[in-house]
Amino acid sequence: xxxVNLDRLLVGREAIERRVGELAEQISADYSGAAAPISIIVxxxxxxxxxxxxxxxxxIPARIDFVQVSSYHGRFDSVGEVTLQKDITMAIGGTDVLxxxxxxxxxxxxxxxxxxxxxxxPRSVRLATLLSKPDRRRMPVTIDYTGFVIPDAFVLGYGLDxxxxxxxLPEVYVASPRTGEPEPHRE
Length: 187
Ligand code: IMP
Fold this sequence. Notes:
The structure is a single chain. The protein has a single domain (4-72, 81-177), classed as 3-Layer(aba) Sandwich (Rossmann fold), CATH 3.40.50. 20% of the residues lie in helices and 32% in strands. The chain is built from 3 helices and 9 strands. It has helices spanning 13-30, 48-55, 108-118, and strands at 4-11, 38-44, 62-70, 83-86, 96-104, 124-132, 145-149, 155-156, 172-177. Helix 1 crosses helix 2 (48-55). The radius of gyration is 17 Å and the shape is globular.
């Protein structure tokens, strides 16, 4: 696995915990009148960490499924193509769908997924994301629930990866490629 430098802590554990709690409260309140369980669609793999912390705090009935796309291939920039790797298997027609993303960067993935989910004729589709980089947007996308708006930087941790690594870090770091120079030891 290629290594990166963790340049600085961007969002710490306490801030994540606090914000996830606030979002869970807001989402629970917004859907409290829903007649049926909402359909939560989690985007593999990055959104799993955020989704699991969020969902455990929801006070409303929910059904859960996963979707996986490839729109990003482990480099430091997104490519403009979205391919479906794993579709949902749960029926979502007529239900209120909440799509859960780790990060909205260019907006290509989220807008593609929303369009894809719409083909199942749900009652509504909303989007929740842990992170948003509005400066990078190429496709306009309405985000209903945003954890943190962040600057245009490559970030890792709490689900976000570089070549499948670093996802398990409990907080979000700004990272950069390691260029061969030996790095000082970090605790
Ligand atoms: P999009 O550009 O909004 O389509 O984002 C595509 C995907 O790129 C996201 O779902 C993430 O998996 C990944 N991505 C975008 N920015 C970052 C980042 O800073 N770190 C790690 N993954 C990222």
